[in-house]
Amino acid sequence: MMLQRGNALLILSLFFIIGGCAIFQKSPSTPLIVDPLVERNRQWSAQVEVGNTELQRKNLRAALTAYEAAVAIRPEASEVQRKIAEIYFQLEEYENARDAFVAFLVLEPKNITALNYAGYISEKLQDYAAAAEYYERVLNVSVDNLYALNHLGLAYKQLQRFDEAIEVLHTALSFDPKCERPESENLHNYLGLIYLERGEIGEAIAELRESIRLFPNEIWAREQLATLYENQERYFEAQLQYQKIFEIDPHNLLALTRLQALARQDFGQTEIVDVPPVTLLNPDVEHIIANAPDARDYPDADTLVLFNYFSHDVLPTGQSRYTTHQVVKILTERGIQKYGDIAIPYQPTAQNIGVNIARTITADGTVLHPPDEAFNDATPPGLLSQNLYSDAMWKVISMVGLAPGVCVEYQVTLEDKVPGGETWITGAYNFQGTETTLESSYALQIPDTWHLRWKIANDTSNAHEPEVSYTENDTVVYIWRYGETSALIIEEGMPHINEVVPRLRYSSIADWNDVYTWYKELAKGRYTPDAKIEEKVQQLTENLTTEEGKIRAIYHFVAATIRYVGIELGQSAYQPSSATEVFQVQYGDCKDKTTLLISMLDLVGIKAYPVLISVSPYEQVDTALPALSQFNHMIAAIPTESDTYIWLDPSSATCSYGDLPYNAQGRTGFLISDTHGEFVETPVFPSETNRLVSTTDMTLNNQGTVEGTLHIQTSGQYDLNTRWAYQQIQPRAIKTTLATELSQQFPGIQIVWHEMSDLNELNVPVEIRLGFRVENYATPLSSNVLMPLPIDEFGEYAEAFADDKRAYTLDFGYPTEVEKTIRVQVPEGWSAALPEDSHHAIESAEFTRQYRQVENIITYRLMFTLKNKILPAVAYPAVKIAVICC
Fold this sequence. Notes:
Blueprint: H1 2-23, H2 36-56, H3 60-73, H4 78-90, H5 94-107, H6 112-124, H7 128-141, H8 146-158, H9 162-175, H10 187-197, H11 201-214, H12 220-231, H13 235-248, H14 253-264, H15 285-290, E1 303-314, E2 320-330, H16 333-339, E3 341-346, E4 351-361, E5 367-368, E6 375-378, H17 381-384, E7 388-390, E8 393-398, E9 407-416, E10 426-430, E11 436-437, E12 440-447, E13 453-457, E14 467-470, E15 475-482, E16 503-507, H18 512-522, H19 531-541, H20 547-561, E17 563-564, E18 566-568, H21 579-585, E19 587-588, H22 590-603, E20 609-613, E21 633-639, E22 645-648, E23 668-672, E24 677-681, E25 691-700, E26 706-714, H23 717-727, H24 734-742, E27 750-756, E28 767-774, E29 779-781, E30 784-786, E31 810-811, E32 816-825, E33 838-841, E34 845-854, E35 857-866, E36 870-871, H25 876-885
Parallel strand pairs: 1-11, 1-12, 7-18, 17-19, 25-32
Antiparallel strand pairs: 1-2, 2-9, 3-8, 4-5, 4-9, 6-8, 10-16, 12-15, 13-16, 14-15, 20-21, 20-23, 21-22, 23-24, 25-26, 26-28, 27-28, 29-30, 31-36, 32-35, 33-34, 34-35
């Protein structure tokens, strides 16, 4: 050790001796040679170190000076160049930042972060062409970069390249369909702005509403939508949006001021258009009122409709004018509620409306007229809860002076603003309603060259022939008159009113081939795909070898990925959008989605056809009378070799391949084939396809607390309904929702854990598993313990079986099978007093309940089968007894 120490001292001594000679040298010597590369690197490192130190201290200017000095020494140092660009960006010196990022990109041309920075800065500087170029360069490196896709869409919008903007934003949507990534939070807002700038109001509203659905607490989309509604004079919807904004942010000045403004000004009031009535029926109103019965004659009635007249005049161009005329006598306070506000539906973009008469006639003959502010336009409330944009409105008349004994008279006329376009008419009219009616008449005037077919449905014994007369104007007038009808009794699950009451149906369409030709012409060219559809089909089916696999993949894509949005404006209420347009915008209504589905299937050699149907609970199609108004939905059908069809309803986003929503089952459809139209019947799926299996295992301790697990399995309609219901719930709210749903069976339930199958995977039936705990579930009772079994399976049927008998059939919706098992492990030595087993088998259903105890395990099992979805009225009493017993 000493030796090593001496050596060390010797070396150190030598160092100082040499050093001394160098410092104190008195004679000239050769200059010290310095490597310029080493010196440059030293200076560069020193400047970078200074820059890093100042940056850590947040001294941005000092850091910038040091970094720029470093870059002056080594211009190729890309990392320092990037820091310079980012500092300029933080200082909001955007032109300098842009130049710095451009310099950096010369060194690293494929750096995605720098390209996105350069694109964003170009947007800030309003150089949208440059911004688009930078984002395009990003996508050349990374096709799924959501930031670049979203901002490229915005850049294209500013450049008025709207089609490209929509396309690129939908590409982003394909990578993040639920906008779960932060980069996509405004995706639907961007689409809404583009559609708004293009003047496509319905599409803009659809996108903004989708943004609100995904992000209900975000305010910007609601502000835009509310303003848009105001501009469209849809003030009710605007108020709802402002009110919601105010609930989210009570300090939001826009919401507060607009709500105040809308409250002060009666925006609902509109000018009453002078539209003269159709005068085909001319009742003696004064005589009818003077001789009207009173409450003593109809002690069970709230109102009496003294007459209900409807007149329809059709011009040779197909343009229509309609007048409805009623006089109603109010008999009770409940009657006042029914006729305080009279709502007439119409479409303001396509129809003019005029209120010809609105008055109240008191018992002493005094006539009261509503003031001008009593006439308002309102949006039908149902539209607000649907994914639908429609131009439907209500003209609402608020009647005055209502009291028992007065009569209300109103006459309202609607007229088409433009010719109908088709020289045919179809229509229908009910001669019975929910109020007692003394007289109903329907008058129809058409060109005398038109052929009219008609029938009175649901009352063949009183099928009155119409009064027919011809005019000097080459028209023919038909008048159907119907006498007194009682108030229709409404029952839970009854058939649609149109299948029950006396109903006039008419049509000037010669035969169903005309309907076929009409739709073929409307859909002409709409199925043609483009390269993007072809690419998607190739992607969906490239690894599939069976026809069924290809159908399944394409159907699931259209059903689940293409959003259902109904936009019913003008011609679009009938004509499908082209397949390319639906694929581009990624949404559409039933006919749009069906058109895209047919187009995509055709690319893999599978022929599918559109089918017009009427879904339940609406009336069935009357095949004897060609009429467009009978249809309200469209699905697709694929013919098979066994003369059957594969049925596909792409409008239902949660319906798996091989199934149909229950409201499309057992319906008559009109299939549009290549050469002709034909009627087809959709199947009713049997009970075993609609299964709900529930298994609960619980352990009860001595303190009355239970801990357990629940496993739910679904198929068919249960799968469809469960999938849809939980897709509407945000993931963080699932646990609370499950607890709420189970709280009636398990008061005070605590969900310990839960898991659910992938709701977006249509190939996998929905399954739910959860663990739970309930304290004080069992109640001490003397020397016993009372523990309820969660077996209220038929509570939902209670209302349907409230009455002793029925006048009409009862529709349960769909056949079902329910299997429920509950196993309870009780403490050792406990025994249970259990109910007796029960079994009931009737024509329409079968019920079995079993109770067992083996050692300390109590088992309850229910098996329920509903074989037919329709219960005849005559079978109702027997089924009611069985339900009560079970």
